[in-house]
Every structure is written in C-alpha cells, then in structure tokens.
Specification:
The protein is α+β, with helices and mostly antiparallel strands. The chain is 59% helix and 7% strand. It has a four-stranded antiparallel sheet with strand order 2-3-1-4. β2 (110-115) and β3 (121-128) form a beta hairpin. α6 (174-194) runs parallel beside α8 (231-260). The longest helix has 35 residues, at 514-548. The radius of gyration is 30 Å and the shape is elongated.
Length: 727
C-alpha cells in the first residue's frame, strides 16, 4: 500500500499534522474548563433524592440564589458589650465588599454581629451573589478581617461559600503542577527503561496530544450540559489519559523495537509490530472504555459524568497510540532509540516445534521467574494467593461511609479553621441549618417533632417581617440548628431519625440542607457500588471470552484482578487509618478504585495472555506461558510503573478523595504488576496447562505441543528436575 517513497514520506507527516491541529485547538481549552465545571455537591445528586427535592422547593421561599458565608471572629479575651459597636462597624466594612447581596428582601448584605454566649466570639452571616466571582469575594472578606481586627482576634470565612472557595483553590494545581509532575515521572521512567533520548519525547507527545484533543470534546459536552464536570473528574481525566496512552505506546514500541532487530526496513518492522499490537491494545482500550461507561448506571451525577469523560480520554489515547505514535516512529525510524539503535539481523532465532521449553533466548530476571514458575507452579500460585488474601483482610477496617467536609481539604484551610472556631463558641450546626419543607397546616406537628428531637438546638418557622408564616405553593419552611457540626456523622444520623419521625406526623415533609445532601450522597454512592460492580465484571468477562476464545482463562483473570482489588483496598484501609490518620474515606472511593483497578489490571493480563495464546499456538501451552511471560515481562512492568507513577501524581492535589484514589490505584497497579501478572496468573495457568483454553480447540490440540510428551518435561537441562507438586 505504501510502496511509493512520496507516500511513505507524506502519510506519516499528514497524520502528525492532523494531531498538531487537534492539540493546537485543544490545548488552550484547558484554561476554559473552570467555566463549565462545578464542585457543588448538591448538583451531583439524583433529582429524586429527598435533599434535592427539598432544595428545589426551598427556592420558592427566596428570590436569592446567593451562597451563604459564615464569618467568625474569635478573640483571645472576652469581648465586653461596649465593644459590640466596633464590631457593628466591621459589619458595614464587610458589606462594602463587591459581590455580596441580601439573603432576603429587607435584610442587610451582612447580618450581625451575633455574639456567642461565652463572649469570646462574634458571628456574621453574608451572602455571595450567584453571579459574583466566589473566590475573589472570599479573599476580599478575609483581607478585610485581617486589616480591621485587633491583634488578639482571629477572623475566618467559612460556611458553604468559604468551603467552596477553598475547594476550588485546592484544585488549582490540576492544569499545571499535576501535569508537570505526571509527565516528569513518565519521562524519567522511560529514560531509565529504554536508555534512549528521543523515544521518551515521542511517547510523551503522544500522551499530551491525546489529552489536549480529548479536552475539546469534554469541554463541548460540559458546555452543552450533557455532563457535570468537576475538579476531581478533570484531574482523573488528565492522569488517566497520560497513563493509558503511555501504556498502549509502550506495547507498540516494544513490538516495533523487536521487529527492527529482524527487518532492515522500518516499514516492514512497523507492519509486523502493528499487526501484533493492535488486537491487545484495542481489546485493552475497549475493556477500560466499557468499564468506565458502566458508571452511566450510577445515580450520582458526578459518577455518571466521570464515565463518559474518562471514556473520551481513553478513546483518544487509543487513537493516538495507533496513529500518531506509529507515524512518529516511522519518521524517526531507528533513530528513535538512539544511542542504542536496534540492528537488523540481531533478532534471536525463532522458537518453533514441540521440543522446546519456552525459555530459549530469554535471560536475566524474566528467565529466572519463568524457571521458578515452571518448577514450582503450584507452590507459587498458592503462596501468591495467600499473600493477597491476607492483605484483603484489611477490608474489615475500611471506613467508606463518607467524611466530614472539614476533612476533605488536606491543605491549610481558613474555612476548616473557621468551622472549628464556630463549633467552639456557637451551636455546632450554626450557619448550616437543616431545612424542612412541610405542607401548610402541618407545621405545628412538624415543629413539635423538631423541637423535641435530641440534638436539635433550635427550630424556627420562616416568617415575614410582620411575623406571618410564609406559605409558598402550599408549603412552609422551617430551619433547625443542630448541636452537631453539619458535616459530622452525628448530624447525618440525626437527619435519618428526623425523616423517620416526621413521616408519622407529615409523610410529605422533606428534610434538606447541607447535612441531608451529604447523607443522600453517601447513601447513593454505597448503592452504586453494589449495582455497578457486577455490571463491570460481566462486561469485562465477555470481552475476555471473545478475545481469548476461552471460558476458563477469562474466569481466572477476572478472579485474579478482583482479589488484587480487594487486597489493594484492604492494605489502603490499614494505611489510611493507622499511618496517614484519615477520618475515613469518601463513599465513592471503593467504586472508583474498583473501576480503575479492575479495568486497568485486566489490561496487563490482556497484554500477557494474548501473547501467551500466540506463543501457545506455536509451541504449546506451558512453553507458551513461559515464553509469553518472558517476552512481555519488561514492557508490562514498565507500563505498570508508569501508570502507578501517573496516578500517584494525583496525591499532590490536597483533596482527600484524590489522595486516596491515588494511593489505591498506584499501589493496586504495582501489586497487579509484581504479583498477579508475574506470579499468580502464570503459575496458575501453567498448573492448569491446556485446560485454560477450554472450550476452544487449543484445549484439546495444544498447539505444536500436541504431538509431544508433557511440556513440563522438556530436554532443557535447566528444567530436568521438575517438582512433583507442579504436575
């Protein structure tokens, strides 16, 4: 097809130019993602969640869509009543900050000062306009406090507005530092593995261009309102694309380098390498894409949106690895591997026939591992299984029922400090009351339940300035201040109890507010876990069966990655609780960990088992297992280290959810690479022998080995002594 010289020059250049154009448009879009993203937890809940319905009905009671901010001033000494006038002047100064608006008609922009009972603190309530630049308003409020307060007082801006501003600030490293760290890690690893100066840049260009072009589609989908883009999904997209594109690139590069030692023409080498790589790369990509799209079954908008966002990234990773990278490798040829250029004619002699061990031509670590697997297959997989099972016992310590909002931000946060100050001097739930919407006429019974509930400090009906109860669309609104911090487990349990108690007096009553949103989010996330995991497993199992033309091998692979996931989660729970001292884990962490680890873990097993099947057709199953393990060991290990390093980069963003996902996936990928794919799967497959291919013909006619004796007993002197337990 590409025999003419001008076509061979033009075609790769044309592909590269197309990707340059796509990246040229996509790159600048990075800076626009904040315009179409949201970190508001309430927007991620399903429409039928009780807190969502309560929030929608609450809008009828106010014309304002402002975001409340709680301003707390804490003094080292008791504030005497005469000084309250001074704090009234502070309220006026705070109200001058652009972007504030009254929470309701007739109210000032800043309500307060409200002194604490102990006399050591003052509280103000402000409302940030919905169309204002939230981060800038919060910064100005904090600057006013710093300038106006006496030396023995400290000021904080907390509440929903303060937390949102600090959360957005914490996500500020996604576009810059995160990518820089991830790319630097990948570059160093590639440099160490290939000892080539040009190749790492070609692989990184492939990854970056895949990310830049995928951003275009993600931005468009978010702009059109098809997906909910958040800071965490934006960060995961960047890491996933860099890691996946690099993994796919490494598989193609390994095959291309191998082919260059056999063929003098770089085109012939690419043709052979491409044919050998395209099936496992496409199968691996399809597995991850379909697994991610299973998140569409989630009831949480944040989970459901991450599915297509991440899937778009994987699609462009596949396209870049199968078009841009081959074009770059053809342009550079052997120079891509400079200074260790592969030479034609140095390829080891092919291994054929039946009287082979599978270890011919191998050397170093992977020959020793192959030797270990062949001699002691059963002890190897049994010990590996026991090690993984022991690690999975840590699941008993997993606390994934949600964490307080004050624990979400790991970096110093003025809002977190302010929440602590608020709890020290006021009712802990002040500033974030529970909202109750009830039918008019039922308010007395509802109010009685609220006031008699242990843990409710105060409950009030919303009335106008004349004192008349406000009725909107046949409903009344009540606010209940809790004795507990709004983001605490005690507050969530109280909301559960209130919903149960209110059903007896007013079944149509709805409980909403910050605490209810957090509770509904955790409950929905836990329900998603039990619903989505079986779907993902079935999808991956079907793909593996189609790819390997087998039932036994796919079941073996699925079982191994599920056990690997359980071990990664168990060890992570021990680390989070006993070393890092986290207060728990977000309820979505187990689900995201599962989707990423199972889909990506199967990737490496696909890379391994497709090569094993290829070798098994030539030399028999058991030699094919050893051969496949040996020739893919280096590249898969490199890919695993790259992916672990890229996900670990998420840990630089000081958000608890991302830090936990970073550790779980990075540790899980390394576990999968070192134990599952290197020892457990090969040893178990070797012990089973041709049975792993059942019911395909290869199970009965074991490739080139079908006419020979048991492939465990080959003529190779290194394998002459075979442990009887591996039979």
């Amino acid at each position: 097809m590409f025999k003419k010289k001008w076509v061979r020059v033009f075609f790769p250049a044309f592909i590269v130019v197309l990707w340059f154009i796509g990246a040229g448009f996509g790159g600048p879009t990075f800076g626009k993602l904040e315009e179409v993203s949201s970190n508001d937890q309430a927007s991620f809940l399903p429409a039928n969640a009780e807190s969502t319905e309560a929030g929608e009905l609450q809008e009828a009671f106010t014309d304002s869509t402002a975001i409340p901010a709680v301003i707390v001033v804490e003094s080292e000494s008791e504030i005497p009543p005469p000084e309250l006038a001074q704090y009234q002047e502070l309220a006026t100064r705070l109200a001058d900050v652009p972007g504030l608006e009254p929470a309701a008609e007739g109210q000032p922009a800043v309500v307060g000062p409200i002194p604490s009972e102990d006399g050591f603190a003052i509280q103000y309530i402000a409302s940030v306009a919905d169309d204002a630049e939230l981060g800038e308003v919060i910064i100005e409020l904090r600057e006013v406090l710093e300038a106006e307060l006496p030396a023995d007082a400290e000021g904080y801006v907390t509440g929903p507005a303060g937390f949102t501003a600090d959360l957005v600030s914490a996500f500020g490293g996604i576009d810059g530092i995160l990518l820089a760290v991830a790319l630097a890690a990948v570059f160093v690893i590639l440099l160490a593995v290939y000892r080539a100066l040009i190749l790492p840049f070609l692989v990184l260009f492939t990854s970056v261009f895949a990310l830049a072009t995928s951003i275009l589609l993600v931005y468009a989908f978010a702009l059109w309102g098809w997906i909910e883009l958040s800071g965490q999904s934006q960060g995961i997209l960047s890491i996933l694309v860099i890691g996946a594109a690099t993994d796919y690139a490494l598989l193609l590069v390994a095959r291309y380098r191998e082919a260059l030692t056999e063929f003098s023409s770089k085109w012939d080498a690419m043709r052979v390498a491409y044919r050998a790589s395209v099936e496992p790369i496409v199968a691996s990509g399809a597995t991850v894409i379909l697994a991610l799209l299973c998140l569409l079954f989630s009831d949480l908008n944040s989970n459901r949106s991450l599915g297509p966002i991440a899937a778009i990234g994987i699609v462009f990773s596949l396209l870049a690895a199968l078009s841009l990278l081959p074009a770059l490798l053809l342009i550079f040829g052997r120079s891509a591997f400079w200074p260790l250029r592969p030479k034609a004619g140095t390829h080891p002699a092919g291994v054929h026939g039946s009287n082979v061990t599978g270890l011919e031509g191998l050397r170093g670590t992977w020959k020793r591992i192959g030797h270990l697997v062949s001699r002691f297959s059963r002890p190897v997989w049994v010990v590996s299984l026991l090690v993984l099972a022991a690690g999975s016992l840590g699941l008993l310590q997993l606390q994934a029922s949600g964490v307080p909002q004050s624990s979400v931000i790991l970096s110093p946060s003025n809002a977190v400090d302010g929440q602590d100050a608020l709890a020290r001097h006021f009712d802990a739930g002040a500033g974030s009351p529970v909202i109750v919407i009830a039918p008019a006429g039922r308010e007395n019974g509802v109010l009685e339940v609220l006031e008699s509930s242990e843990g409710v400090a105060e409950a009030t009906l919303v009335a106008d300035q004349a004192g008349a109860v406000i009725v909107r669309d046949g409903n009344v609104l009540m606010r209940a201040t809790l004795d507990y911090q709004a983001d605490s487990a005690e507050a969530e349990e109280l909301v559960r109890q209130l919903r149960t108690d209110l059903d007896a007096v007013s079944p149509d009553a709805l409980v909403g507010g910050v605490t209810a949103v957090a509770l509904d989010t955790n409950v929905t996330a836990q329900a998603d876990l039990t619903k989505i995991i079986p779907i993902v497993l079935v999808v991956i199992l079907v793909i593996l069966m189609l790819l390997l033309r087998s039932v036994v091998a796919p079941l073996l692979l699925i079982g191994s990655v599920v056990l690997s996931y359980a071990t990664a989660l168990g060890v992570s729970a021990l680390v989070f609780n006993n070393i890092l001292g986290f207060d728990g884990a977000d309820a979505s962490v187990p689900l995201f960990g599962f989707v990423f680890l199972v889909a990506l873990g199967v990737d490496y097993n696909i890379f391994l088992m497709t090569r094993v099947r290829e070798e098994s057709l030539r030399i028999g199953t058991r030699p094919g297992i050893l051969r496949g393990l040996g020739v893919t060991g280096g590249v898969i290990t490199s890919a695993g280290i790259v992916l672990a390093a890229t996900f670990a980069a998420l840990g630089i963003i000081p958000i608890l959810f991302l830090a936990q996902i970073a550790f779980i996936v990075a540790f899980g990928v390394l576990l999968d690479t070192v134990i599952v794919r290197s020892l457990l799967v090969p040893a178990l497959a070797y012990d089973l022998g041709p049975k792993i291919w059942w019911p395909s013909k290869l199970a009965k006619h074991d490739g080139a080995a079908s006419s020979s004796s048991d492939p465990k007993h080959r003529a190779d002197p290194e394998l002459s002594e075979v442990d009887s337990t591996s039979a």
